[in-house]
Amino acid sequence: MAANEDWVVPASHDERRYAIGGVSEARKQQKAYIAPLFAELAAGGAAAMLWDLQRMDLDGWHPRDAIPQTKELREQKLFSLGGMDQWYV
After folding, report:
1. Residue 42 — pLDDT band, cuts 50, 70, 90?
2. Please, are residues 70 and 22 in contact by the beta-carbon 8 Å criterion?
3. What's the CA gap between 38 and 53, in Å, rounded?
4. How far is the C-alpha of 80 from the C-alpha of 64, rounded, in Å?
5. Would you kindly state where each structural domain of the chain is located, as residue ranges?
6. Of 20, 24, 34, 39, whose CB count within 10 A is highest?
7. pLDDT digits 0-9 by tens, 11-40
């Protein structure tokens, strides 16, 4: 999902549902960077990635064990605070 809003997901202090990243300021609005990515998708890149993913050994792995604690996720946690907690922070 992509969004332009400040608050996108209701992230709790111990968030384990969302992995959130941002777009590099160096890459924003760069069609020369994005166009090859879309060309790869159009040429079967999504199917090739799915093929690779279906063959990946995930034994012992669960997504909740590796949520990256990014700057963007920390921001969502702050936006999700209630009134008194928001005031306190």
Report:
1. very high
2. yes
3. 19
4. 19
5. 1-22+70-89, 23-56
6. 20
7. 998 888 888 988 888 888 889 988 999 999
pTM to 2 decimals? 0.68
Element (H, E) at 73: helix 71-79
Reduced to 3 states, what is the DSSP secondary structure of residue 77? Answer: helix
Compute CA distances 59 → 19, 55, 62, 63, whole Å: 21, 11, 9, 12
Span 60-80, average pLDDT = 89
The residue length of the chain stands at 89
Q: In whole angstroms, give the CA distance from residue 20 to residue 1.
A: 10
User: How far apart are alpha carbons 68 and 19 in whole angstroms?
Assistant: 6
Q: Quick check: 24 and 17 in contact, CB under 8 A?
A: no
Q: Note the pLDDT tens digit of each residue in 71-88.
A: 999 999 999 999 899 889
